[in-house]
C-alpha cells in the first residue's frame, strides 16, 4: 500500500511527523510518499499544487494530511477542495467522542456520535463568480450525490445503533428538499430508523443533548460547521480527526487548521493527527488500530499533554509517548 504524506503548512509540519511516528510503530509494509503542498509552496513557486502532484496522489491508495493556510487571493486554488474533487472523496467522516479525562464546554462525556457530511457538492461546488459589487456561489444538490452519502450513512448506522438523523434547511433552501427526500427513501430501503432536524435546531440540540445522536448525515457546509462546533464538546479542535472517503481513495486529516500563531513552537496538539492514523488503520482493516485509543488514554492519564489542554508537553513528546506505548503493547 502507498500512502501520500502531506505536512502542509503551519502546525501540520509538526503534528504529521508525530502521527507518522505512531504509524511506524505498527511495523506495517507501507510505502510513504512525501509531498510538499500548500501556502508555503505557493509563496515560493506560485503554485500550491501541480497536475503532477495530483497524479502522484492518484498513484497512492490514501493520504495523510496536516493542514493548509487559507490564502485570501482569488488566484489561489484550494488544495483540499481540489483533492476532494479529483479523488471523488464524497464522504467526510467526523467522529465526536470524548477522550478519557478531557471534558468540553458542557462538562459531559456521555456521547459518541459521527457526523457524515456530503463532501463534493453544496456550497463548496466551486461554481462561483466574484465581482466588486456582486458575487455568487451556486449550491449544488444532486440525486446521485445525496443517494451515495445517504447510503454511506445508512451502512454505518446499521453497524452501530441503526439510528440516523438527517440535517437540512428545506424550509428555506428548497434544494434541501431533494436531499431530505433522498435520505428518507434510502433509510427506508436500508431499514434504518431515522428522524430529521433543521440545522439551526440541530446546532442547539447537539450542545444540549449530544447523547441523543448516533449517526448524523447532512450537506457540505452544514456538516463543516456542525462538526467544528462539536469539537467544543470534546474539549479542543486538536482532539478531533476526520476522514474523507471515496470508492477508491481515502484521505485523513485533523480538523484543526494550520494555526500560524503557534506554528514552529512545538506546542501543537498531535492527538487529532494520531487519531487520523487510527482511522487510516481502520480503513485498512487493521483491528490493532484500537491500540491507539489505549495509548492516548495512557498518555492523558499521565498528563503528558500540550498547552491547549493545560499541560507543558511538546508535540513531539506526545507523539513519542503514544508510539512507545504502541511498540510495547503491540505483540502482547
From TrEMBL:
Protein name: 3-isopropylmalate dehydrogenase
Protein EC: 1.1.1.85
Domain Isopropylmalate dehydrogenase-like: 2-322
InterPro entries, sorted: IsoCit/isopropylmalate_DH_CS (IPR019818), IsoPropMal-DH-like_dom (IPR024084), LEU3_arc (IPR011828)
UniProt xrefs under NCBIfam families: LEU3_arch
Subunit structure: Homodimer.
Entry's Gene Ontology molecular function annotations: 3-isopropylmalate dehydrogenase activity; isocitrate dehydrogenase (NAD+) activity; magnesium ion binding; NAD binding
Similarity comment text for this entry: Belongs to the isocitrate and isopropylmalate dehydrogenases family.
